[in-house]
Specification:
This protein is mainly alpha-helical. The chain contains 19 helices and 4 strands. β1 and β2 form a beta hairpin.
């Protein structure tokens, strides 16, 4: 059924119909379409634009369509142009003449704008829950590992000793910002475009505030042209998903590195790994690699839609139909990646002795050796040079700073005393970093408590 055939004298070419149709993908928001239609006709009856009897029949018919679609008794056809015409055709078939009054005071332009906004809003709520689950896993692992020592890195070179809790805490902050970013987008998009009409509103006495209230919006959009042509919220959502995927990709990259034979910091669960068809010894981090790889796919959706929107004049243009497929794909990809990464991380086993040994053997305590000399009155620049000599000596002898004898220390600088060993132990190096945000166990526990309170407040 076409909603616009009266002005035309010949049938649309079959290829044009196929090219133009959106039902194959916009069927995804049939629930939102029906929900919006129920709110619209409820408002029409309140305003006396349709009768209470017609409104009741329309609502009953819409609910029966929803029930049949949910159960599978009603299947989507291959002739309807879009979800709006599919629902309306089925409604008229079920209840007759009253069904023809549903579209009073409404255009497909504001209808699809509403459907997409309702759908995106629902999906933001679902994605926030997925991120909350991931944050819970991170905080639980962190709480158990405030004294699990490991090397911190810059330039992929061992830098200073930290703890696993501190390292994972950085990702907690990233995903916390992602959660808050989604919350902010939801607040900003929560205006109702229904009642904007095609672009210039309508002559019917609609109560747009009432419709907005019925649908859980903060109020109606304040410009009808913007109401039908605004897709900023989708661009923001795609941008937020791109940032989430970037964070997941960075985390995945580290899990992949940590899983190598050279590092052996982690042992990934068999359920989240795969093998090789030819090399029986292999256990590959495919989930982490796929998350890393699919990040580009989500980036592509963002850039694609930005490019689609960049040259569009006001108000609605058919180009906007291109928002759906790329948005749906990015949405499915991001949600799937969050879910799988959460499961992978939750089942990962961390090799704590290996992490500590890596920190000890990578001269991560060199800065603390320099600080030790400063504490003895040596200027920092001189201390820096002295410790550089220590590192060079250790590299030549293939030992760590901890393994040097006191005589060897004194041969390079007589300032060193027996207390150097305690000063450069991993425990000391980490424990004495007590400023907020640092890896010291006491301040780390304080941060974990703050983040647990934040999670509990969601």
């Amino acid at each position: 059924m076409k909603l616009w055939g009266g002005r035309f004298t010949k049938e649309t070419d079959a290829l044009v119909n196929q090219f133009n149709a959106s039902l194959p993908f916009d069927r995804r928001f049939y629930k939102q379409d029906i929900r919006g239609s129920i709110a619209h006709v409820t408002m029409l009856a309140k305003q006396g634009i349709v009768s209470e009897d017609d409104s009741a029949q329309i609502i009953a018919g819409l609910n029966s369509i929803l029930e049949d679609l949910n159960s599978g008794r009603l299947q989507f056809d291959d002739v309807s142009e879009d979800i709006h015409s599919f629902v309306e055709a089925n409604l008229i078939e079920r209840i007759g003449e009253p069904g023809k009054r549903l579209h009073t005071g409404r255009s497909r332009n504001d209808q699809v704008a509403l459907d997409m906004r309702l759908y995106a809003r629902d999906e933001i709520d679902e994605m926030k829950e997925l991120i909350r689950d991931l944050l819970t896993v991170i905080i639980n692992i962190s709480e158990e590992n405030t004294e699990t020592f490991m090397p911190g890195f810059t330039h992929l070179q061992k830098a200073q000793p930290v703890t696993l809790a501190h390292h994972l805490g950085a990702y907690f902050e990233m995903f916390k910002r992602d959660y808050e970013r989604l919350t902010s987008i939801r607040e900003r998009m929560n205006v109702c475009p229904l009642g904007s009409g095609a672009l210039a509103g309508t002559t019917y006495p609609l109560d747009r505030e009432y419709t907005a209230k019925l649908l859980g919006f903060d109020g109606p959009s304040l410009n009808s042209m913007d109401g039908v042509s605004d897709r900023d919220y989708l661009i923001e959502f795609l941008s937020a998903m791109s940032t989430i995927m970037m964070h997941l990709s960075r985390f995945s990259e580290e899990m992949i590195i940590w899983n190598t034979n050279e590092y052996r910091f982690v042992d990934l669960d068999d359920a989240y790994s795969t093998g090789s068809s030819i090399m029986p010894q292999k256990k590959n981090p495919d989930i982490a690699e796929l998350v890393r790889g699919k990040t580009g796919r989500v980036y592509g959706a963002l850039m694609g839609f930005l490019t689609t929107m960049k040259g569009l004049p006001l108000a609605y243009n058919k180009d906007m139909q291109e928002d759906k497929e790329m948005f749906f794909d990015a949405l499915d990809t991001t949600k799937g990646c969050i879910t799988l990464f959460t499961g992978m991380l939750k089942t990962t086993r961390f090799n704590k002795p290996r992490m500590a040994a890596s920190a000890k053997n990578g001269f991560t305590n060199a800065t603390d050796a320099a600080d030790y000399l400063v504490g003895k009155g040596v200027p920092f620049r001189d201390a820096h040079g002295i410790v550089g000599q220590l590192v060079l000596f250790c590299e030549e002898k293939k030992i760590s700073l901890d393994e040097m004898s006191l005589e060897e220390y004194k041969a390079i600088s007589p300032v060193f005393e027996a207390d150097i060993y305690d000063a450069i132990s991993l425990e000391t190096c980490v424990d004495k970093r007590l400023t907020i945000g640092a890896p010291g166990p006491s301040v780390m526990k304080e941060v974990i408590d703050k983040n647990k309170q934040w999670l509990a407040s969601l």
